[in-house]
Amino acid sequence: MRFLFDRNVWQEIFGSIGKNKTRTIITVIGVLWGIFIYIALSGAAKGLDNGFDKAFKTVAMNSMFVWAQSSSIPYDGFKTGRQLQLKLGDVETLKNRVPEIQYIAPRITQGQFGSEPVYTVKGQKSGSYTLNGDYPIYTKISTKQIFDGGRFINQEDIDQARKVIVIGERVQQELFKKDENPVGQYIRVGDIYFQVIGIHKLAQGVSFDSDSAMFIPFSTYRKLYNTGDDVGYLCIAAFDDVDVIQVEKDVKSILKGIHRVSPDDERAFGSFNLGEAFGKVMGFADGLTFMSLIVGIATILAGVIGIGNILLISVKERTKELGVRRALGATPAEVRNQIVLESVFLTVLAGIIGIILGAGLLALINKFTQDTDFPYTNPTVPIPYVFGALIIMVVLGTLIGLIPAQRAVSIKPIDALREE
Amino acid sequence: MIEIKDLHKSYKMGNNKLHVLKGLNFSIAEGELVAIMGSSGSGKSTLLNILGMLDELDEGSYTLDGVPIKNLNETKAAQYRNKFLGFVFQSFNLINYKSAMENVALPLYYQKVPRKEREEKALKYLGQVGLKEWADHLPNELSGGQKQRVAIARAMAAEPKVLLADEPTGALDSKTSYEVMDLIQKINDNGNTILVVTHEEDIAHMCKRIVHLKDGVIVEDKMVEQVRAEQYV
Predict the structure, then answer these.
(1) H/E element, B121
(2) What are the pLDDT digits (tens) for A373-402?
(3) Which residue range(s) make up the domain with B222?
(4) CB within 8 Å of chain B, chain A residues 261-320
(5) Does A30 score more than 90 pLDDT?
(6) Looking at the complex, does the CB of residue A22 fall below 8 Å from at least one CB of chain B?
(7) What is the ipTM of this complex?
(8) How would residue B14 be classed by pLDDT, with cut points 50, 70 and 90?
(9) Domain containing B171 — which CATH number?
(10) C-alpha A242, offset from chain centre
(11) B-chain residues within 8 Å CB-CB of A418?
(12) Which residue numbers delimit the ABC3 transporter permease C-terminal domain (chain A) (predicted)?
């Protein structure tokens, strides 16, 4: 292997490659294209992956919503079609009986799912918005970004049933002047005045709440609207490593037990499992990554085979040159090394250019997709993938180069010289 | 310098065996300038290929500068060629993407001579064939005579014991042929052993000894009065 570090060997190879420019360029393009596709594809897949990650960042990935509907099977003396109602007591029961639950936040709401939004007034301005009665723990499931100077509902608000409110960005824009700070001011919601304590910023990506939602303490809501222990729906976040689909089943069967619904009644409680949906999306992203890897490697393979092909032709074309070299004292090993090294060098050169171009394309795409809704963030190719590709190229380049090299050596110098 | 005893060589052509060389005996001393003559098919090229270690003999022995040339593998043959022999071909066989100087330096590359030294030597030998100012030109920018002179410089660059020239003037007109022969004579004057294969009578007579081959045997081996090529240039 010492010849690898011999300057003379490389000078000879550069000479041969540099003087046959057309051949070199055509050879290089095949692999260059392959690695370019590989980098661009796997980078794009990674970008999409990151994009999804970012979109889901603001919500707990393992979360779900559960709400009550009406029974569809007569059971335990009740007839079918009975309207069910979740209760505050369900929260404690679920927490105790399903250990996989990390957070559970009951919520009561008006202005969603067909109910009338709440008429809200500030001075001369007014609008109708969704009103939610919440617990502070809700922020553990869906992150609430509150603008500077404000805050979300806290435990003391709940304990004292304070008349405080967190408003959305759009509510702020519609009810307040541009340079006005709403925090500390009062707005009338229905017939009651609330003090604004914060403005929540609409999260990029997936969000449970719109920018026209308002939040007040759960305890305040139940007092004002006289809803007692009623709960609109439950937001549940399971621990990271548990099976959310199983948790969803457990939660529903426990609720059926509490509310005396037939265990076979599939329509009594509705749910939306974000974890499951998220899993599907991530599965799609993983599939895309895998596919791009396969396609990329296949393209590299095709490129390397192309190099081998062209070298094979060029060996035929260079039969005489190689014969002359051998007449002048080149040993078969020297001829073989030269051909293989030419192959490896061209492959690696093409690979590096391809990587640079691919990275350039990724940077360009990244630049144009920034600040758009398209889920595409930070498209990178992991370093092991790049090195892996390079190693594959060196190995393949060597193997492929061996074919023309062997052919070059197998021709006797005398035959090579005779060839006109 | 060269000792050949009872040399036989035959080729298989399908089922037929073609006996090309039928027991040659001759020796060449250091400093000789020998012409091997014969019509086509007489076996002169085969002889040269065996002498040049490009082909193997079937029977007999071949000794070059006291070294028996026998059962060589390709690697060994390549090393011997590099060390002992310089080749000049009818079709020049220059590498077309290398400049004159790089072509001359090529055998030195296979002798593992460092680049600087290689180039110095190459320039020196190009100077000897009178083509120093053409050093950077590619072969296709040179005339036939110039190409052959570059090829001779290349053959000489490795400082071989024997220079083998296979129809060195075959592709040249008579004027340039004489120029090339003049060069070969001058190299011979410096004490180098040279073998020239030719079928041209006048070229053969510019050598000091003529070996006549016919149907694989030596029919004539005579010393001749050398005609200097200088006078025709």
Answers:
(1) helix B115-128
(2) 666 777 777 788 888 888 888 888 888 888
(3) 2-95+162-232
(4) 320
(5) no
(6) no
(7) 0.86
(8) confident
(9) 3.40.50.300
(10) 20
(11) none
(12) 294-412
Q: What global pTM score does this model have?
A: 0.66
Looking at chain A from residue 88 to 117, which residues have their Cβ under 8 Å from any Cβ of chain B? none
What is the count of structural domains for chain B? 1
Q: What is the DSSP annotation of A200-232?
A: EEPPSS--SS-TTEEEEEHHHHHHHHT-TTEES
Residues 398-417 of A with CB under 8 A from B: 409, 412-414, 417
Q: Which burial class, exposed, middle or buried, applies to A245 when counting CB atoms under 10 A from its CB (0-12, 13-18, 19+)?
A: middle
Name which of B54, B113, B136, B150 to mutate to probe chain A: the one with the most chain A Cβ atoms within 10 A of its Cβ: B54
Of A231, A272, A233, A225, the closest CA to residue A116 belongs to A225
B89 vs A contacts (CB less than 8 Å)? 417
Q: Chain A residue closest to B56 (CA)?
A: A414
Examine residue B24 and state whether it is found in any structural domain, yes or no: yes
Of the candidates A19, A320, A330, the beta carbon closest to that of B110 is on: A330
**Do the chains contact at A327 and B49, CB–CB below 8 Å?**
no
Q: Closest by alpha carbon to A283, among A115, A23, A48, A104? A: A48
Domain range annotation of chain A: 2-56+280-418, 63-273
Residue in the block written with tokens 């190879």: A13
For residue B99, the SS3 value is coil
In chain A, count of helices (H) and strands (E)? 13, 13
- CB contact at 8 A, B114 and A8: yes
Structural Rg of chain A based on CA atoms: 34
Find chain B residues with C-beta within 8 A of A420's C-beta. Answer: 91
How many other β-carbons are positioned within 10 Å of the β-carbon of residue A203? 18
